[in-house]
């Protein structure tokens, strides 16, 4: 019988562990649609999501997951037949491109190899070739959750500017928001797509979209059929219009608390905590990898994500078995390999409401399962993770905040 005592650890790269404070905030009676108590909280969430994305643009909240927010972004700013450039980053860029095609948009890709971030020079070249400006939008995955790689958005903006290309820049920050800096306005991002259940510490159930001025004005011309996703009605004054009907009230109460927690910690500290925990995870994987069976998918250290680490396994290892034992017997849920990495990798999520001891638990479960399955690995991965954090702590003054 698997051990069912104690807490389950959720180290999937979404959904993530939901803090008690957020769950408690959601434990409320439902209210009248236009109860001022709800309206105040709701309006403050629309307002404060701007601070998270660092934008003065409009925020839209959908009762949906990230896929809903993807569709909302595409349906509002593009018209049937419009051409999009979608640099391949991994499974999520491919899935978003397929969605665009399903909405009758045309997709051009910039091939990528899943172990590196988007090639900025190649992107610039491809945009320069489009001298008639046929490309209407560029879809970028900020952190590609399948590969554990974060793309350099300021560099992407600079490449678009240097090619003097007018396309809208549409960014999926679903897995990056709340784990790494994001500056929508400063980086010239026209549309941002997010979701509640990753770094933002809420349960699944809210799709979040932000749109800048240029995107709002394009949306007035875009002819893709839409109603639920449509920004026009959602910008009207009556509050229920913002949700195209009844608001997901309890999710909004949860969002308020999650935003409070992010601002109390301070966004910069939130990013630093994620950076430190990601570094500790990488340190563990490097040690495990010394026996030649496991390796970090992201080959370039500076491109590695703060949110998720993708670990490749050699062919003789059953990555899914490893993952199932971790979840069912060690009570630690990990992510599997996606798309081209299916069966060839597993992923450790370290985003959202997580601290060092929680990460040690996850890494210990992996190390213990490697041993149990007689997989060859370099021993001492967990110790390397602990030392990584201890060394950072020693170099700093002030309280331990990881
Ligand atoms: C999780 C994820 C999505 C999809 O979100 P769902 O809520 O599962 O629909 C989209 N993009 C990225 C980068 C993600 O990590």
How would you characterize this protein structure?
With 402 residues, the protein is of the alpha/beta class. The chain has 2 domains: 9-15 and 267-394, Aspartate Aminotransferase, domain 1; 20-263, 3-Layer(aba) Sandwich (Aspartate Aminotransferase, domain 2), CATH 3.40.640.10. Helices cover 40% and strands 16% of the residues. Strands 2-10-9-8-5-3-4 form a 7-stranded mixed sheet, sandwiched between helices. Strands 1-13-14-12-11 form a 5-stranded mixed sheet. Strand 6 and strand 7 form a beta hairpin. Helix 9 (249-265) crosses helix 10, helix 10 (267-288) packs antiparallel against helix 13 (381-394) and helix 12 (356-372) packs antiparallel against helix 13. Pyridoxal-5'-phosphate binds next to helix 3.
């Amino acid at each position: 019988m698997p051990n069912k005592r104690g807490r389950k650890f959720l180290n999937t790269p979404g959904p993530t562990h939901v803090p008690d404070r957020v769950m408690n905030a959601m434990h409320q009676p439902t209210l009248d649609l236009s109860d001022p108590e709800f309206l105040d909280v709701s309006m403050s969430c629309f307002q404060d999501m701007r601070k998270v994305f660092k934008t003065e643009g409009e925020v839209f909240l959908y009762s949906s997951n990230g896929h809903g927010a993807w569709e909302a972004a595409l349906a509002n700013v593009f018209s049937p037949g419009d051409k999009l450039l979608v640099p391949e980053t991994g499974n999520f860029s491919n899935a978003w491109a397929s969605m665009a095609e399903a909405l009758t948009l045309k997709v051009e890709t910039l091939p990528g190899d899943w172990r590196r971030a988007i090639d900025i020079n190649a992107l610039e070249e491809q945009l320069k070739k489009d001298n008639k400006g046929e490309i209407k939008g560029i879809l970028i995955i900020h952190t590609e959750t399948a590969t554990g790689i974060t793309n350099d958005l300021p560099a992407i903006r600079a490449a678009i500017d240097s090619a003097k290309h007018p396309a809208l820049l549409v960014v999926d920050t679903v897995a990056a928001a709340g784990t790494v800096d994001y500056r929508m306005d400063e980086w010239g991002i026209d549309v941002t797509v997010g979701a509640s259940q990753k770094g933002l510490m809420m349960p699944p159930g809210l799709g979040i979209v932000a749109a800048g001025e240029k995107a709002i004005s394009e949306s007035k011309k875009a002819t893709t059929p839409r109603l639920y996703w449509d920004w026009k009605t959602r910008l009207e004054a009556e509050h229920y219009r913002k949700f195209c009907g009844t608001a997901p009230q309890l999710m909004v109460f949860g969002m308020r608390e999650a935003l409070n927690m992010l601002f109390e910690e301070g966004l910069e500290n939130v990013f630093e905590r994620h950076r430190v925990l990601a570094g500790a995870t990488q340190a563990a994987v490097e040690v495990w990898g010394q026996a030649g069976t496991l390796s970090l998918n992201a080959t370039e250290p500076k491109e590695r994500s703060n949110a998720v680490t993708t670990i490749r396994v050699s062919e003789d290892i059953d990555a899914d078995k490893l993952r199932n034992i971790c979840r069912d017997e060690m009570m630690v849920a990990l992510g599997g390999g996606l798309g081209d990495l299916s069966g060839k990798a597993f992923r450790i999520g370290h985003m959202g409401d997580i601290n060092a001891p929680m990460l040690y638990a996850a890494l210990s479960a992996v190390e213990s399962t490697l041993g149990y399955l007689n997989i060859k690995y370099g021993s001492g991965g967990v110790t390397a993770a602990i030392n990584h954090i201890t060394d950072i702590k020693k170099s700093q003054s002030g309280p331990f905040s990881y």
